[in-house]
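Re: NAP structure - here you go.
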Amino acid sequence: MPGFDRDSRIGFIGAGAVGGSLAVALSRSGYRVVAVASRSWSSAESVAGRVPGCEPRETGQKVVDAADVVFLTTPDDAIGPVASSVSWRPDQAAVHCSGAGSLDVLDPVAEQGAARGAFHPLQQFSDIDNGSKGFPGITLGIEADEVLREFLREAAQAIGGNPVFLRPEDKPLYHVTGVLMGNLLSTFVATAASVCEDLGLTRSQGVHALLPMMRQVAINLESMGLPNAVSGPYVRGDIGTVRKHLAALKEGAPDVLPLYRELALLALPLAVEKGALAPARAEEIREILKESRAGSRRPGLQSEKHPAAEH
Ligand SMILES: NC(=O)c1ccc[n+]([C@@H]2O[C@H](COP(=O)([O-])OP(=O)(O)OC[C@H]3O[C@@H](n4cnc5c(N)ncnc54)[C@H](OP(=O)(O)O)[C@@H]3O)[C@@H](O)[C@H]2O)c1
C-alpha cells in the first residue's frame, strides 16, 4: 500500500491559474513540487520559473514518471482525457481540482491501481501571483481514496486552508456555492455597474463606485454574520422605496428587474429573522414584488430592447 507524505514528489499537468497558484503555495509550504507540463511550453516554463526545484516537462507522461502525486489542473473537460492518456504506477496518485467533478473522473487512474483525489479550493483564481496568496483561510473541498486522504488534509492545512471532506452526492451543490460567490458575484457587480452606465458613468467608474460598498458588506458579514449584517429598504420596510425601485427598473433597466425582484424576495425572510421587519409588512412587500413578476410577464415586455445593451 503506497503512502503519501511531505516527502512525496508533486507534479502538475495544467499550468494555469489554479495549477500555478497551488504549485507555488505548496512549494512555499515545504512540499516538493518537481515537475510541470501544460498544453503550451511557455505556461509550463512560467510555473517552473516560480517554483524552486521544479522542471518544465514536454509531456504529461514525463510529469507522471517524475512524481508521486500528480495534480491534473487542466480545464474540467480535459481532466478525464488527460488521465486516460498517460500510464500510472500503482504507487502514485492523481488529484484534480474541479469543484463539480467527483472521483469518477479519475477512474482511468484507478483502473491502473493508482489512488484518486479531488482537492477543490473554494476561491477565485485569475492569475498565479495573486492566486498563490489566496489560500489562507479558504475552504478546500476534498474527496479521496483512503490512502490519500491524510496527505490532502495536511496539504490543505499547510497552505493555510480549512479542509472539508465531501460526499460525492454533495459535490454539485457545494460547487454551486462557489460559483454563486466566486463567479456570479462578478456578474452581479457587472449588472449593478450596467445600471450605473444608464446614469452616465462608464462601467469602470461604476465598478469603482460600488467596490467600497462590496468591501464593507464583506466586513459586516465577517463581524456581524447573518442576519445582523443585512440592511436597506427591505430591513426598514420602506414600501415607497421598493415601489420606486420597481418602477425605475421597469422603465430604465427591465433586464435587471427579475434579478432584483428574486433577490429582494430572498431578502425578506432575513429582514424578518433580524427582527427588523414585521412579518405582516414583509408579506405586503412580497405581494408587491410578486405583482411586478406577473407584470413583467406580459407579452412584449421581456422582448423590449434595453438601451444599455447598445453600449
Ligand atoms: N479559476 C478558478 O477560480 C478555479 C477555482 C477552483 C477550482 N478551479 C478548477 O481548477 C482547474 C483549473 O482551472 P483554471 O482556472 O486554473 O484553468 P486555466 O487557468 O484555464 O488553466 C488550465 C491550464 O491547463 C492547460 N491545459 C488545457 N488543456 C490541457 C491539456 N489537454 N493538457 C495539458 N494542459 C492543458 C492550459 O494550457 P496552456 O498551457 O495553454 O496555458 C492552462 O494552463 C479546473 O478543474 C477548475 O474547475 C478553478
